[in-house]
Specification:
Shape: globular
Structural class: alpha/beta
CATH class: Alpha Beta
Largest sheet: 8 strands, mixed
Distance between the termini: 31 Å
Number of strands: 8
Order of helices and strands: EEEHEHEHEHHHHHHEHEHH
CATH superfamily: Alpha/Beta hydrolase fold, catalytic domain
Radius of gyration: 17 Å
CATH architecture: 3-Layer(aba) Sandwich
Oligomer: single chain
Number of helices: 12
Strand content: 15-25%
């Protein structure tokens, strides 16, 4: 997006690329697997009119450093501490946090472990509960099958087909040029290894579920009605398990920020303004 401030910040010993827009109260935006900061472009276009949006590429993704799994423990706890360190590097102070999928799990854990950092929390189709097809997913990321798939078989055509089939309900909402951008970011040995390590580290979600009762920040759970990965019932359950959380259902698949960025931005903006004096 034009007008962006891009910079690199060291967090938990890893170089993170951070993209900022706008000014005002900060809103931190955390992406999921196979995406990076660009997934928030449509949302940022609206939110940055009134807020300072801060969208990092998590370790191993986008333009951030991609350390080997032997050196960096890809998983929600490590990502959470990297984001907490990022606050200090950017002098953010207390901020609203919006997280999608894996980024939602990180946002939830950040709010639970570091309540002093999170003023308001928005969870978008967040990773939290064991997903349907759990046994198949375990096989997919097993040492033999997973390594073969991620390092050799997952080409551009398959990658694009997977994202369009599972991450959105309307395939046209992920145009070819956008898919090509995400594939280019994924298509290096280090990036493929990072994505596989993150998937392997998040098969067991019990530690994420355990954090829900510790969240103190006002919370809004937003879900795509036609999410093929995490059913909408997951969102309803999550909103019940986080004290006082609201729930919004959007007409989208797993990635509302790609399909319905305007609707998602409006919901987020209304929620953030509800907490202002």
């Amino acid at each position: 997006m034009p007008g962006a401030l891009q910079r690199d910040i060291a967090a938990s010993g890893v170089r993170l690329r951070v993209v900022e827009h706008g000014s005002g109260s900060p809103v931190v935006l955390l992406h999921g697997v196979f995406f990076d900061h660009a997934t928030w472009d449509g949302v940022v276009h609206i939110l940055s009119r009134r807020f300072r949006t801060v969208a990092p590429d998590l370790p191993g993704f986008g333009e951030s450093e991609k350390p080997s799994a032997a050196r960096y423990p890809y998983g929600v706890p490590a990502f959470t501490e990297a984001v907490a360190d990022l606050y200090a590097g950017l002098e953010l102070g207390r901020s609203a946090v919006v997280g999608h999928a894996l980024g939602g799990a990180v946002a939830l854990t950040l709010a639970a472990r570091h309540p002093e950092l999170v003023s308001r929390l928005v969870l978008v189709d967040a990773l939290c509960y064991p997903v349907p097809g759990w046994l198949q997913r375990r096989a997919l990321i097993s040492p033999l099958v997973g390594d073969l798939l991620f390092k050799q078989l997952l080409g551009r055509t398959t990658f694009n087909a997977v994202l369009r089939r599972y991450l959105v309900a309307n395939r046209a909402s992920l145009p070819r040029e956008r898919l090509d951008r995400y594939y280019a970011a994924f298509n290096t040995p280090t990036a493929r290894g990072s994505a596989l390590a993150a998937l392997r580290a998040t098969v067991d979600t019990r530690a994420i579920v355990a954090q829900t009762s510790r969240v103190q920040a006002p919370t809004l759970v937003v879900w795509g009605r036609r999410d093929r990965i995490y059913p909408a019932g997951f969102g309803q359950r999550l909103s019940r398990e986080i004290r006082g959380a609201g729930f919004e259902l959007l007409d989208s698949g797993h990635a509302p920020q790609e399909e319905q960025p305007g609707a998602l931005a409006e919901v987020v903006e209304n929620f953030l303004y509800a907490g202002r004096p």
